[in-house]
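Quick one:
INPUT:
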């Protein structure tokens, strides 16, 4: 009886380990940064900066806007430019069907604002965003936020 019980425990622990590994792989495949890197490939060296920007905007993908509306960049309902999201009544922010749609919409914003692909530093990148009205925070705070996530793998 003792022998059977220990074997059952071993089998169950292996099953839980395998389930845990599958769950981890599934979660890694659904990570926003995985989508970011694939979709932003035309932006070459800037995709690290953009991924850090998304992490800053969403508090490392934990914000309510990111979770409930798939909005990774804090994109508001635009008055002029074309967008891929939905403007919900009483909400100033776009809602997206998926995170990938949010990333593609951000690319539309970059194109609409003539993204300068000759930028050399993350400071230049943040300056470009500021000049096009992307954020209202102080330059110093926004740069610090984006730079914080660049220190880690983004």
């Amino acid at each position: 009886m003792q022998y059977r019980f220990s074997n059952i425990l071993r089998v169950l622990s292996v099953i839980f380990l395998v389930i845990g590994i599958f769950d981890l792989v599934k979660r890694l495949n659904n990570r926003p940064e995985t989508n970011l890197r694939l979709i932003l490939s035309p932006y070459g060296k800037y995709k690290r900066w953009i991924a850090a920007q998304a992490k800053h905007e969403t508090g490392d993908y934990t914000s309510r806007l990111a979770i409930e509306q798939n909005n990774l960049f804090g994109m508001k309902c635009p008055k002029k430019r074309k967008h891929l999201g939905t403007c919900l009544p009483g909400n100033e922010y776009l809602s997206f069907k998926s995170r990938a749609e949010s990333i593609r919409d951000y690319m539309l914003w970059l194109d609409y604002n003539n993204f300068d692909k000759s930028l050399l530093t993350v400071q230049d990148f943040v300056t470009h965003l500021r000049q096009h009205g992307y954020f209202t925070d102080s330059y110093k705070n926004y740069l610090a936020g984006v730079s914080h996530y660049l220190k880690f793998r983004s």
